[in-house]
Specification:
With about 575 residues, the chain is an alpha/beta fold. The protein is built from 22 helices and ten strands. The chain starts with a helix and ends with a helix.
């Protein structure tokens, strides 16, 4: 139903072009179907020795004129009607992409990329074909058959007309019987395509792992199995859809044979003229083409129906994160009260009874083992997942009352995965807004400690990084993502284990720059290394989703608890590494 509404809106927007195209199509069909009548008339004039050479020439020129005019009009209606199918493809794909942008992170956690690619490519292409050949062939077929039957029945011979239309009911019955099977099997074809898309993308993104473990042959054999399954799925559909064409042709061949026999007899006894017989033959050929195309039309419409059903599923998905009305935040005090959080797909709480205050202008360090809930806390501050009212406040305003745009505009976030787009370093750093100057980009690069590295590249800031920034080292990717967050000039800066891939010297340099930036901003630094968070105003130690220790670095050291033990173990490890280097 969602797709139907979108398509109806598209038709309303382009209703004039559709009306124009249909009017031209009707005119072109009527003109083209006048040619057999003129041909029959010329045949009778020649056969009976009637008419002068001039009259015959006029009729021949009329035929040529009708053919040329029909060609011009055919080009015009195809421009309006078939051209619209490309517009509907673009329109529907934009709507799908815009809808995907509104869906929460949890939606992408539960859907494979290959499936989403199949929706955006194969399913939308199937609907485009409905608006292209499917729609045009249906309208043209109805017009041609209607006009042809009118000329055949009224001006030539009713019995021959019934004989010509004899196969139509058979074709319609077979089509009705097979259409549901075609739709069902096409849905399986789309799923097979999604699996192949997912496998290809996964393999390309993980090609270094595949090669490192010498699994090329294993991956090729796995892909070959998917390809064979894909072929098998397609062939199951082709066996059904392909049956419509031969059934139609056999029926019309029998009808045509009977027409030749009976029509020749009528010509011999003088019931109809030779010209009428030839004209009727032309009309019958005109009727055969649309009816033979019924199999293809039905297949295209059933494919479109199956794709519309699949797209309806995506368009019916909604975000479980409601937008707030508050569009202004004057201060950036963060307060968390009795927060317990469980991911939608799990039953075990990730965060348990979190109580925390982060005054505006202060920096909080969050440390703990892997899986302790550090990243989840950052995600909730960004409202990437739904949270109940009354647990997180910014400037004493419930975070659910703040508009998502306002909230996320004020937060600079550096995630763990250090994602970069396949574009230039400059574009990646200036991702937040197009109006950023080169000087601001360079300053952000200096503050993140990656400026000198960038200048060493032949193209400098115009260097194009590979997919997900793969051409950069891990440390360079981290620092470019930090520069992207700093270039945003956020009021709240969240660094989620963003310096794990850099050496100690670079880490100290970057942290020193960030401390200067955070003097008048609220900062949250998440790490598994004590050296990263030790200079924060306040530090919390998370374990199994709970805050088990909090305080300044010195206070936590004095407690000699989990934080102290982690600090000592990392210090010993660092000393051992330095000794090994010497």
């Amino acid at each position: 139903m969602e797709v139907r509404k979108i398509l109806l809106n598209f038709i309303k927007e382009r209703i004039l072009s559709y009306i124009t195209g249909i009017i031209i199509l009707i005119t072109a069909s009527i003109i083209s179907l006048r040619i057999p009548k003129v041909l029959g008339k010329v045949t009778d004039m020649l056969n009976k020795g009637q008419g002068t050479v001039k009259e015959i020439r006029i009729q021949l020129l009329l035929m040529v004129g009708l053919a040329v005019l029909g060609f011009v009009l055919r080009f015009c209606w195809r421009y309006f009607l078939v051209g619209n199918c490309r517009h509907v493809e673009s329109y529907l794909r934009r709507k799908l992409f815009a809808h995907l942008q509104t869906l929460p992170v949890n939606f992408y956690n539960n859907h494979r990329t290959g499936d989403l690619v199949a929706y955006a490519i194969n399913d939308i292409n199937a609907i485009r074909r409905v608006f292209g050949f499917g729609f045009v062939a249906l309208i043209e077929g109805v017009l041609i058959n209607t006009v042809s039957v009118y000329y055949m029945a009224r001006t030539i011979e009713p019995v021959l007309t019934l004989m010509a239309l004899g196969p139509v009911p058979i074709v319609v019955i077979v089509t009705i019987l097979l259409r549901k099977t075609i739709r069902s099997r096409f849905e399986k074809v789309q799923k097979a395509f999604a699996m192949i898309s997912e496998r290809v993308q996964e393999n390309i993104m993980g090609i270094r792992v595949v090669k490192a473990f010498a699994q090329e042959k294993h991956e090729m054999s796995g892909f070959a199995r998917l390809s064979r399954k894909n072929v098998k799925t397609h062939m199951r559909m082709v066996r059904v859809s392909g049956a419509l064409g031969p059934v139609t042709q056999v029926c019309f061949s029998i009808s045509f044979l009977l027409f030749i026999i009976y029509g020749s007899k009528l010509v011999a006894i003088g019931t109809i003229s030779l010209g009428d017989f030839i004209a009727f033959n032309s009309y019958m050929a005109a009727i055969m083409r649309p009816v033979i195309n019924i199999s293809r039309i039905i297949e295209i419409w059933q494919r479109g129906a199956a794709s519309a059903k699949r797209l309806d599923y995506i368009f019916s998905e909604t975000s479980d994160i409601s937008d707030g009305d508050e569009s202004e935040i004057k201060d950036y005090d963060i307060e968390i009260k009795n927060l317990t959080f469980t991911y939608p797909q799990t039953q075990i709480p990730v965060l348990k009874n979190i109580n925390l205050t982060i005054p505006s202008g202060s920096t909080l360090g969050i440390i703990g083992k892997t899986g302790s809930g550090k990243t989840t806390l950052a995600n909730l501050l960004l409202r990437l997942y739904p949270i109940p009212d009354g647990h997180i406040f910014i400037n004493k305003i419930d975070i659910n009352q703040i508009s998502l745009e306002t909230l996320r505009e004020k937060i600079g976030f550096v995630p763990q995965d250090n994602f970069l787009f396949s574009t230039t370093i400059k574009s990646n750093i200036g991702f937040y807004h197009e109006g950023i100057t080169d000087e601001e980009i360079e300053e952000a690069a200096r503050m993140s400690g990656v400026y000198d590295d960038i200048l060493e590249f032949p193209e400098g800031f115009d260097t194009v990084v590979g997919e997900r920034g793969i051409t950069l080292s891990g440390g360079q990717r981290q620092r470019v993502t930090i520069a992207r967050a700093l270039a945003k000039n956020p009021s709240i800066l969240i660094l989620d284990d963003s310096l794990s891939a850099v050496d100690t010297e670079t880490e100290n340099e970057v942290l020193g720059n960030i401390r200067n930036i955070l003097k008048h901003r609220t900062g949250i630094i998440i790490s598994h290394r004590v050296s990263t968070v030790m200079n924060a105003d306040r530090i919390i130690y998370l374990e199994d989703g709970r805050i088990i220790e909090k305080g300044s670095h010195q206070e936590l050291m004095d407690q000699k608890g989990a934080y102290y033990k982690l600090y000592m173990s990392q210090s010993e490890e660092s000393d051992e590494n330095m000794g090994a280097e010497k």
